Amino acid sequence: MKRWLWLTLVVLILDQASKWLVLMAIAPHEVIALTPHLHLTLLFNEGAAFGMLAGAAGWQRWFFVALALGMSVFLTLWLLRLQLEERLQAAALALIIGGALGNLIDRLWLGRVIDFIQVYLPFIPLPLFNPWPAFNLADSAISIGVILLLLATWRALPTSPLPQGEGRKE
């Protein structure tokens, strides 16, 4: 469904514009507290989510480039084949594609992804997730897209009752 590609473009533009603004305004590792629980902190991530594989020998850059390209092509083809009434699925795929392309641009030009949103969650007693690992708008779009895709899949599951006599045996 081509009509949803505008959302991919919006995500891509907002992601890249926000990263450019942060690069111009904040020094690496500088912290700007917007609220007690929300900070801006310029960080560079050579790995994936939560910094996984960040310490690898450099091969991870091209692995993640290939993964983002392959997934973007696959998801775009999926998006283009959706029916008009599959709006939730279309929005989800458009968000994921936009986020993947936003981080792909970072990897191609910088060799790493720009992260800058830092959230502190005092109600989570796990030190590993406090603060939450830094992220960016592309990461947010991917996460929201995955949640929407799961919701769309759940909503599409058949809800018909079991045929008579097929119930649970006690």
Can you give the mean pLDDT? 86
Helix content range? 40-55%
Percent of residues in beta strands: 5-15%
Tell me the radius of gyration.
Answer: 19 Å
List the helices and strands and how they pair.
Blueprint: H1 5-25, E1 31-35, E2 38-45, H2 59-80, H3 87-110, E3 113-119, E4 132-135, H4 137-156
Antiparallel strand pairs: 1-2, 2-3, 3-4
Give an overview of the whole structure.
The chain has about 170 residues and is α+β, with helices and mostly antiparallel strands. It has one domain (about 1-155). The chain has four helices and four strands, in the order αββααββα. It has helices spanning about 5-25, 60-80, 85-110, 135-155, and strands at about 30-35, 40-45, 115-120, 130-135. The chain has a four-stranded antiparallel beta sheet. Strand 1 (about 30-35) and strand 2 (about 40-45) form a beta hairpin. Helix 1 (about 5-25) runs parallel beside helix 3 (about 85-110), helix 2 runs antiparallel to helix 3 and helix 3 (about 85-110) packs antiparallel against helix 4 (about 135-155). The relative contact order is 0.18. The model has no long low-confidence stretch (mean pLDDT about 85).
